[in-house]
From TrEMBL:
<keyword id="KW-0067">ATP-binding</keyword>
<keyword id="KW-0547">Nucleotide-binding</keyword>
<dbReference type="GO" id="GO:0005802">
    <property type="term" value="C:trans-Golgi network"/>
</dbReference>
<dbReference type="InterPro" id="IPR018303">
    <property type="entry name" value="ATPase_P-typ_P_site"/>
</dbReference>
<feature type="transmembrane region" description="Helical">
    <location>
        <begin position="973"/>
        <end position="993"/>
    </location>
</feature>
<dbReference type="GO" id="GO:0140326">
    <property type="term" value="F:ATPase-coupled intramembrane lipid transporter activity"/>
</dbReference>
<dbReference type="GO" id="GO:0000287">
    <property type="term" value="F:magnesium ion binding"/>
</dbReference>
<feature type="binding site">
    <location>
        <position position="584"/>
    </location>
    <ligand>
        <name>ATP</name>
    </ligand>
</feature>
<feature type="transmembrane region" description="Helical">
    <location>
        <begin position="29"/>
        <end position="49"/>
    </location>
</feature>
<feature type="binding site">
    <location>
        <position position="550"/>
    </location>
    <ligand>
        <name>ATP</name>
    </ligand>
</feature>
<keyword id="KW-0472">Membrane</keyword>
<dbReference type="GO" id="GO:0016887">
    <property type="term" value="F:ATP hydrolysis activity"/>
</dbReference>
<dbReference type="InterPro" id="IPR023214">
    <property type="entry name" value="HAD_sf"/>
</dbReference>
<feature type="binding site">
    <location>
        <position position="665"/>
    </location>
    <ligand>
        <name>ATP</name>
    </ligand>
</feature>
<keyword id="KW-0460">Magnesium</keyword>
<feature type="binding site">
    <location>
        <position position="401"/>
    </location>
    <ligand>
        <name>ATP</name>
    </ligand>
</feature>
<keyword id="KW-0445">Lipid transport</keyword>
Length: 1077
């Protein structure tokens, strides 16, 4: 449902005054929902009771197919052109619309239920000096809210105070950015002491800040209070969707509410994805419609010729109806009549059947116990029902590394300090390390983690004073432990005797070899993806000021003092060794600052922090100024082990001719080692090409040099993606068996995927586990989320999700291949049976004077696609298999037909319709040849309209049933019940519709009564004096009483039905005889 926004013009800035609803309402930060004024109401639902029917129908008729069938229905309501009753179209159309409406209503009901659950959560709001319970939906901008531990944040709040010292609080942001680790937020110092509701009730500060936006990591604003102003940043904000952790309580001022919150601003609609089969079907449907128009024009031309040459002979007793006054207008009406009759070449049931089949395939994925992870109690989930067959056509897989190929469970493995490497040497024999014992830290460190493993005792034997500074720096740099990497470093420092104990806004307390030391925290230089480093500036108890920096070696080593050349060279070798072992590396450095340097920089930093324009750029420049001429401390190496089954999965997928690209932010050596570990790269690959140019020209030159060596396997490590090198990049990379792009940002991941989609026209799949993979997941044709250590953000953005990378081979090679196979067989059979069904009408047109008379009765036309043939083809589309699942995994080459699109393409489509047309020829002309001159033993003609119609319809049902029996490769109970049950239902319904009982009860609806037909035949024969007349013109419709409807079926008009008298004598006695009858 769309919100009615009171404020018409876009905000340029937001002004919020605490505890003053009247002031804030002037800016109209509220919304109307059901004519009720609400500020914090969230509505993700689309409909309500009043709007559901009109809005849902409007949306459904946005589909071309639905609009097309509505157009046919309107045509059928025009008696001059319709030879079919309106219910032949409205019944299937209403069924389709109803099924879709029920599905949409069910989905929206759950959205309403979720919205109501969220909107009716209770929150403590400070109103008139006291805390009162209010529903979330009634919270207003400017209200002060109290949050308690483990509560969700109700709106975007400015943190005012907390029960923790110095206004600190801890939050979990998994719903925002997918990160499960806790983050620290801190109130402005001037409000941190307003913890009492009485003090907060008198708080009347005013906040001027940026308008609502979707930037989760940025906030810029100013607090004006008591004639002073205070700069506000993202560190002062608690965003909706966060959870308060490890904090007894805190208070916050509502800045953004409801749809204005950053969570809702980021909840835009995901791009709708369509499969290649969908796109092909759209093209084929247009072709079929063109074919339908051509058939209609051919028959209309025939009608014009017949009416001019033959029909004019009957004008004396079968005149044209008004407004028909010439043969051309009769042909025009005949064209639209045939459009109605022949529309079943594309029946509406096709679209319903496709959705039902896809839904069934999705449930099979959800129910697959072999894709269920018992360790984390997580099942595979198909989060969409529209892409299942696309899983059987994937050619390129783009995978994240950390948490996707690896476990994202970090352990400290090695480190380099002052040019000396510590940790297990992977090149040492295993026997030597078996003899080594795991170090026991408890004798000198009672706070050691018992699960920590380290085998190199050289680090413990190093003089404490030499390593103290270096190891202590770990704690200084990672005390927040905001990622698994930092958690591993904190654990290592803890075991070596340097334990992080507590933090306040201005201090950090550690225990160093049993001695408590408190550092003054002067500044934090935050990490971001551009800086790729973070720093802290602290003052130790002796008064010395020092900056500690950790980050990627590529950005940190270039900021070292020139005197570090020797140790930098040694440390760089260690970093390369660690990366070769597949370890994640970080470099560490420090810089001593004098008081004057600190004071000068502090002033420039304070100025940049308070800037109202270009604040982020000013801060980045200030950080860059101080992070220079640093001294190298060393480096760390963290191990992130591969997940179970990753090498085997990649090997099997490679045999299926699926190309796997790894897109990672790690350094080149780490990426190469992981490539070998997971068997993307193998020893039998003759060449590995590394392209690492830093300029456009150097990268272009290296790309071109690769092509000089043919038939080689190459590795491409991308450092830049330039627009003018797209073609060279794609052509080179796609010639490789394995591609690894390292040092890539989230945006570059998406760019790589888009390049392959643009230039190769291949089906792509992206798989990742973190918030940094979302852009890649949304860009690919198919997005897969791993529910791992980095939250569920990637899962929420994905089309499919599971917990282990190894499940990908079953998703593609089993479920994907089966879905593609089933959908292709379904479509081939569906087009075949409908052409066989519809083309009989086309051939009949040449024998009924092109009068748009149907071969089958209208009940058969209505029921053919929704009763007689719907369930067997659904059973085949849902349950069919060519080989069991284990054979699909044993023989990955079975996957290739989907990649080459062999099972359903334009060629296969033309083969199907050719088979259908051939079947229609046999179904029409064989009964015609047999019945046209046949007589009974008593001389009565055997042929009549009913006999021919029933014979043709019965043959059609039997033939298409036999065809699906031949096409079905895997029989289940459902297949048997549906095939034989549908065949049996045809005969039961046919006998019922042609019974004398129904004719006597509803004579105007059921014309086919044997006694009635025999009597009519005798009257016609007597009137014409031709005992063989009926056999030579068996298309004569059932007679009805009345001068204007003689020789007509119920509801048909004379201008069309003169055609049925083609071979009869134009005698006026016929009309009188029929009238008397």
């Amino acid at each position: 449902m769309t919100h009615l926004v009171c404020c018409v013009s876009a905000e340029e800035e937001r002004r919020v005054r605490a505890n003053d609803r009247e002031y804030n309402e002037k800016f109209q930060y509220v919304y109307f929902s059901f004519l009720i004024l609400q500020s914090n109401c969230i509505m993700t639902s689309k409909y309500n009771i009043i709007t559901f029917l009109p809005v849902n129908l409007f949306e459904q008729f946005q589909e071309v197919a639905n609009t097309y069938f509505l157009f046919l229905l309107i045509l059928q309501l025009i008696p001059q052109i319709s030879s079919l009753s309106w219910f032949t179209t409205i019944v299937p159309l209403a069924l389709v619309l109803s099924i879709t409406a029920v599905k949409d209503a069910t989905d929206d009901y759950f959205r309403h239920k979720s919205d109501n659950q969220v909107n009716n959560r209770q929150s403590q709001v400070l109103i008139r000096g006291s805390l009162q319970n209010e529903k979330w939906m009634n919270v207003r901008v400017g209200d002060i809210i109290k949050l308690e531990n483990n509560q969700f944040v109700a709106a975007d709040l400015l943190l005012l105070s907390s029960t923790e010292p110095h206004g600190l609080c801890y939050i979990e942001t998994a719903e925002l950015d997918g990160e499960t680790n806790m983050k620290v937020r801190q109130s402005v110092s001037v409000t941190s002491e307003l913890g009492d509701p009485n003090n907060l009730a008198s708080f009347d500060g005013e906040v001027v800040c940026e308008p609502p936006n979707n930037k989760l990591d940025r906030f810029s604003g100013t607090l004006y209070w008591r004639e002073k102003k205070y700069s506000l940043t993202n560190q002062n904000m608690l965003l909706r969707g966060c959870v308060l952790r490890n904090t007894e309580a805190c208070y916050g001022l509502v800045i953004f509410a409801g749809p204005d919150t950053k969570l809702m601003q980021n909840s835009g609609r995901t791009k709708f994805k369509r499969t290649s089969i969908d796109r092909l079907m759209n093209t084929l449907v247009l072709w079929i419609f063109g074919f339908l128009v051509c058939m209609g024009m051919i028959l209309a031309v025939g009608n014009a010729g017949w009416e001019k040459e033959v029909g004019s002979l009957f004008q004396s007793y079968l005149a044209w109806d008004t407004p028909v006054n010439n043969f051309l207008f009769s042909a025009f009406l005949s064209f639209w009549s045939y459009v109605i009759i022949l529309n079943t070449v594309v029946p509406i049931s096709l679209y319903v059947s496709v959705e039902v089949i896809r839904l069934g395939h999705s449930y099979f994925i959800n129910w697959d116990q072999q894709m269920f992870c018992s360790q984390c109690n997580t099942a595979a989930e198909a989060r969409t029902t529209t892409l299942n067959e696309e899983l059987g056509q994937v050619e390129y897989i783009f995978s994240d590394k950390t948490g996707t190929l690896t476990q994202n469970i970090m352990t400290f493995n090695k480190c380099s300090i002052n040019g000396q490497s510590y940790g297990k040497d992977t090149h040492t024999t295993c026997t030597h390390w078996k003899l080594s014992q795991r170090l026991d830290f408890t004798p000198f460190n009672p706070l050691a983690d018992p699960d920590f493993c380290f085998y190199d005792d050289k680090l413990c034997k190093t003089q404490i004073m030499t390593s103290k500074l270096n190891i202590c720096s770990f704690v200084m740099l990672v005390y927040k432990a905001q990622s698994p990497d930092e958690g591993a470093l904190v654990t290592a420092a803890r075991n070596f005797g340097f334990v992080f104990r507590s933090r306040t806004p201005g201090t950090i307390t550690t225990t160093e070899m049993g001695r408590t030391v408190t550092y003054s925290l002067l500044a934090i230089l935050d990490f971001n993806n551009i800086r790729k480093r973070m720093s802290v500036i602290v003052r130790n108890p002796e008064g010395r000021i020092r900056l500690y920096c950790k980050g990627a070696d590529t950005v940190l080593l270039e900021r070292l003092h020139p005197c570090n050349q020797e140790v930098m060279s040694i440390t760089s070798d260690h970093l390369n060794e660690y990366a070769t072992d597949g370890l994640r590396t970080l470099a560490l450095a420090y810089r001593d600052l004098s008081e004057d340097e600190w004071e000068a920089w502090s002033e420039s930093h304070r100025f940049a922090d308070k800037a109202t324009d270009c604040r982020e750029d000013r801060l980045a420049a200030a950080y860059e100024e101080i992070e220079q001429n640093m001294m190298l401390l060393g480096a760390t190496a963290i191990e992130d082990k591969l997940q179970e089954g990753v090498p085997e999965t990649i090997a099997v997928l490679s045999l299926a001719n699926i190309k796997i690209w790894v897109l990672t932010g790690d350094k080149q050596e780490t990426a190469v080692n992981i490539g070998y570990s997971c068997k993307m790269l193998t020893d039998d690959m003759t060449e590995v090409f590394i392209i690492s140019g830093h300029t456009v020209q150097s990268v272009r030159q290296e790309l071109r040099s690769v092509w000089l060596c043919a038939h080689c396997t190459r590795l491409y490590t991308a450092h830049a993606l330039e627009a003018d090198m797209e073609a060279e990049f794609v052509s080179t990379a796609c010639a490789c068996k394995a591609v690894i792009c390292c040092r890539v940002t989230p945006l570059q991941k998406a760019q790589v995927v888009e390049l392959i989609k643009k230039h190769k026209k291949a089906v792509t799949l992206a798989i990742g586990d973190g918030a940094n993979d979302i852009s890649m997941i949304k860009s690919a044709h198919i997005g897969v989320g791993i529910s791992g250590q980095e939250g569920i953000q990637a899962v929420l953005a994905s089309d499919y999700s599971f917990s282990q990378f190894r499940f990908l081979q079953r998703l593609l090679l089993v479920h994907g291949r089966w879905s593609y196979l089933r959908m292709c067989r379904f479509l081939c059979y569906f087009f075949y049976k409908n052409f066989a069904f519809t083309m009989v009408h086309f051939w009949f047109g040449f024998f009924c004077g092109f009068s748009a008379q149907t071969v089958y009765d209208q009940y058969f036309i209505t029921l053919f696609n929704i009763v007689y043939t719907s369930l067997p083809v659904l059973a085949m589309g849902i349950f069919d298999q060519d080989v069991p699942d284990h054979r699909s995994l044993e023989y990955p080459k079975l996957y290739e037909p989907g990649q080459l699109n062999l099972l359903f393409n334009k060629r296969e489509f033309f083969i199907c319709i050719a088979q259908g047309i051939y079947t229609s020829v046999v179904l029409f002309f064989v009964p015609y040849a047999v019945l046209s001159n046949a007589t009974q033993s008593n001389g009565v003609p055997l042929a009549d309209y009913q006999t021919f119609a029933v014979t043709t319809a019965t043959a059609l049902v039997i033939v298409v049933s036999v065809q699906i029996v031949l096409d079905t490769g895997f029989w289940t109970v459902f297949n048997h019940v549906f095939v034989w049950g549908s065949l049996g239902s045809y005969f039961i319904i046919m006998f019922a519709l042609h019974s004398q009982t129904l004719f006597r009860i509803f004579p105007n609806q059921f014309h086919f009564c044997p006694e009635h037909i025999i009597a009519a035949s005798r009257v016609v024969n007597d009137c014409t004096g031709n005992s063989n007349m009926h056999s030579s013109s068996f298309g004569v419709p059932l007679p009805q009483a009345g001068p204007q409807t003689s020789a007509l079926r119920h509801g048909e008009k004379t201008h069309k039905n003169t055609a049925f008298l083609t071979l009869m004598s134009p005698s006026s006695s016929l009309q009188h005889a029929l009238q008397s009858f």
